[in-house]
Structure formats: structure tokens, C-alpha cells
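User: Is it possible to get a 3D structure for a protein together with its bound compound? The compound here is glycyl-adenosine-5'-phosphate. I've pasted both below.
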Amino acid sequence: MEKVVSLCKRRGFIFPGSEIYGGLTGTWDYGPAGALLKKNIKDEWWRAIVEKRDDMVGVDAAIMMNPKAWEASGHVEAFTDPLVECKLCHSRIRADKPEEIETHEKSHKKEKVVWTEPRKFNLLVKAYLGVVEGEQLEIFLRGEITNGVHVNFKNVLSSTRVRIPFGIAQIGKAFRNEITPGNFTFRSREFEQMETQFYIKPDEKEGKKWFEYWKKERMEWYLKLGVKKENLRFKDHAPDERAHYAKAATDIEYQSPFGWAEFMGIHHRGDWDLSRHEKFSGVDMKYHDPDTKEVYTPWDIETSAGVDRSLLFFLIDAYAKEGERVVLKLHPKLAPYKAAVFPLLANKPQLVELARKIYGDLRKNFMVAWDERGNIGKRYYAQDEIGTPYCITVDFDSLEKGDVTVRDRDTAKQERIAIKELEDFLKKKLSGS
Ligand code: GAP
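Assistant: Yes, that's possible. Here is the predicted structure of the complex:
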């Protein structure tokens, strides 16, 4: 884990938030390579979930909502974690995380830790809106991105041609006042989620069918993007572990350096959200089937993945040390840069000119890096560390024969490819799934 954290800082994936001011616990900033990786993860997700399906549409709802929405969804009352306080040093820790309790008790060495009784701590982050001091409206930054989808259920129905079963997808920031942020970005106070709310007929058989469907579909997505099978598993929630809205819940877990940990969740939310929003808003949130004329409150099968957690686990899974070489074996679709272009020697204008031309042509369609510092070995090393799948070197033969050396990140093998074939070569490598 330390190696991954250090690589993230060194190569511009992830920096501590507001670092020059001593940081802000539970916040992280993505650097140039990290921002590209994050965007690629979200783009791949959106393509698979929205663009390639007929039964899904996307929305992008506001982060700030009328606070009644959070009462309706049960978050004001029940979006809590159990908190205990150490009577010796007043540290606050989650009572449901035995490993954190144990670590804390060990840190006091000989003194015996006494804990307060657990109390419910609400995770919603408050903010204040309005221009008149004392009359400001207290609102919540969204603790999950879900509410913005459910409150638009009727708007989506009336503005599109969707029919049940169908889903609404969204990607966006969420905020939680986590008691103990930690394990790098794994538990942060500001993070991003990618979610689908899939509305179905309220029927046990339908519920089971779609719950199983989405479990399988989501697992396959991570496998297709190269996460090792042995590092993934499903973990069902026991009834007392489920969130207040869930009838059933399963996590996809990743075998991380800090143990099996939740990657994402699949939740059977029943009619919890739509019926509560109907009750609190007074607006009819039922589905009126235009064909059968049935009227019902649909059930919702939700998939909810953390963008930051996905990124962290993709990074950990891709990290490899081969001899002296550190290489990130990211799926080419996720890799920040698809290729890097180098002139063999930076002080030979003809090489630089041709390399620049190739770089300029390729970047019309792909994210491509340019490097002319140091020697070729160092440049390969730097690109391996950020997971660039192909390095293209322009040498003296290129000037005469019109071809270049293409070096494969994973095998370190090199082949000569005609310059005019480069675009097709990259397209082929990046196509599929
Ligand atoms: N809408 C359902 C929901 O939010 P959740 O299990 O609380 O369910 C879903 O969160 C996903 O969001 C998690 O599996 C995780 O990937 C991500 N997530 C939740 N809390 C997080 C945190 N504090 N930091 C980073 N990611 C988090």
C-alpha cells in the first residue's frame, strides 16, 4: 500500500487535499495522471451503462437539494454510524470496526482504554444557503447521489420513452462526515459515486431476477477491465448490516492490502424511496403503465460504486514490480495515456520533427504523451509507472523506412510498425468490450 501511495504522489495520480496548508482530513486531489484515469473510469462506466443500453438513461442532478428530500429518504434520522470515544485521549472511532478499536487500544500500550457507550453519529454534512445572516437555510451536501435520481422519476418518465423495467444512471460527488477517514482514498469525506437506480414491477420474482442480473453484470465489468478474478468476491449483508433503505444488499469486495474491502454495493431498495418521496412531497410518484393501465410504486434495484475506490483498486491490482521495473498494468482503456512518443535523440532536429508530427497526428484521436528528457530507458521507466501501454520511438531508420519502434508495456517487447499503420494499431488495441 505504501508503494502505491508513494507512486500516486510521485507520478501525479493523487495528492493530499490542500497539502500546502497541512491538508484537510479525508480529502484528496487528483493530479494530471489521476484526473485522466478517473475520467476514463467514468467514461467506460457511462458507455457500458447508458450508451450501450436501451433500458437506461442518465441524469446529472444538483448536489444541493431541498432539505425535505433528506428527511423523506430517511437520512436525517438514520444515516448514522455508531461512534465511541476513548476516555483517555478523546479520539472518536467507529464502534462497528473492531480492527480500528484494536489498533487504538494497542496505541495506548500499558494504559487500559475505557470507551464511552456507542452513540449514533449522523454522517450528513451541513451547509448554509442565503444572504441574510441568521436567516440562512440549513441544507445538506448529498450523502449519496441517489435522491437526485428518485425525485426526478416522474420528469424522466414524461420527457423520454422509457418503460418499466428501466434504469436511471448518474455520476457525481457525495459527502460524508466519516468518523474515521482512512486507508488512503478508501474512506474519504468527499468522494464520487457511479450509480444506477433500476425500476421494476413490485414483485418478489422480478426483484430476485434483477438483483441477480445486476450482481453478475457489475462483476463482469470489473473483470473485463482487467481486475484479477481471485481478488474479487461477493459478500451478502446480514439484515443488521443493511442500510435503512435496503431489503437485501450484496457488496463486491476487493482483496486489498488492508483486507477484503467493499468496492461497490448492489441494493434492493424496494419502494422505499419513491413511496417516501410521495409521502413527504405529496406528489404522486407511482408508475401508470400505459399499456396494461396498472398503477403501482415500482421497486428499485440499485448499483452503487465509488469512483475513487474503483480507481484505488484498479491501481493496486495493476501494480507490479518486475526486477527494477515498476509497472502499472492498467487496462489500455483506463490507462491515462494510450501511447507515448519519443525522438530517439532530443538534439537531432529531423527526429524531433518527425516525432512531433506523429504525436500531433495521434493526439487527434488518443491521449498521447510526449517525452524527450533523458535516455530511452528512463523514458520507458517513467511511462511504465503511469501505465502507458505503448511507447513509440522515432529513430534514424524511421526517417528512411517510415516505420517506428513500438514497445509493449507488459512484455517490454519491441516491434517495428509503419507510421501510417500506427493509428489503426492503437484503435485495434483499444477496441472491444
Ligand atoms: N446509494 C447507495 C450508497 O451510497 P453505500 O454502500 O453507502 O451505498 C456506495 O456507498 C459506494 O460508495 C461504496 O461501495 C463505496 O464504493 C463508495 N463510498 C461510500 N462511502 C465512501 C467513502 N467514505 N469514501 C469513498 N468511497 C465511499
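The longest strand covers residues 259-270. The chain has 14 helices and 23 strands.
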